[in-house]
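Reviewer 2 asked us to include a model.

Predict the structure of this chain.
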Amino acid sequence: MANAVDQEDKEVEEQLSSSLPSALTLTSPTQQSQENQNLSNPTSSQIFCHNVVNLLNKDDVDAAIKIQRDMISRVERANAVIGNFNHVGKKQYEDFLPKFKEHTRLIMDMKKDLDNVYKRIRVLKRKIANQHKEAYEAAEYKIYGEASFNEDNGE
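Predicted model (C-alpha cells):
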C-alpha cells in the first residue's frame, strides 16, 4: 500500500516537473537528468514556460510583491478606520433615532394643532362675514387694501 502511494507521488511529481520549468520545481538529481534530456527535445509548452520564466525579472517580481504587500497593509488599515467610523456612526444613529422620532411626532402634532387653529379662524371669519357683511368688508378693505378686496369679490 505504501508502495502504491509512493508511486502516485512520483507520477504527480513527474507531471508537475514536465509542465513547469525546472527553476520553479524541486527535483531530484535523477529527475534533473531526465529533464536535461527533455530540454534537448523540448515540447511547445516547455518552450513557452521557459520563455515566460525568462521574461520575468526576479527583482521586478520582488518589487511587485513588496508593492502588493504595502497596498494590502494600507487597505487593511483603511478597512479598520472605516470599520471604526461605521461603529461610531451606528452608535450615534442609535442614540439620535429616538430623539428624532420624538421631535418628528411633536412637529406633526403641532401641524395638526395649527391646521385646526386656521380652520377655526376661517369658520369664525365666515360667520362674522355673514352676520356683519358691510362692517366685515370695510374692515377687510382697510386692512388689506383695494387689491385684496377686489380679489375676494371676484373682480
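The radius of gyration is 44 Å. Confidence is low (pLDDT under 50) at residues 19-26. We have added this to the supplementary material.
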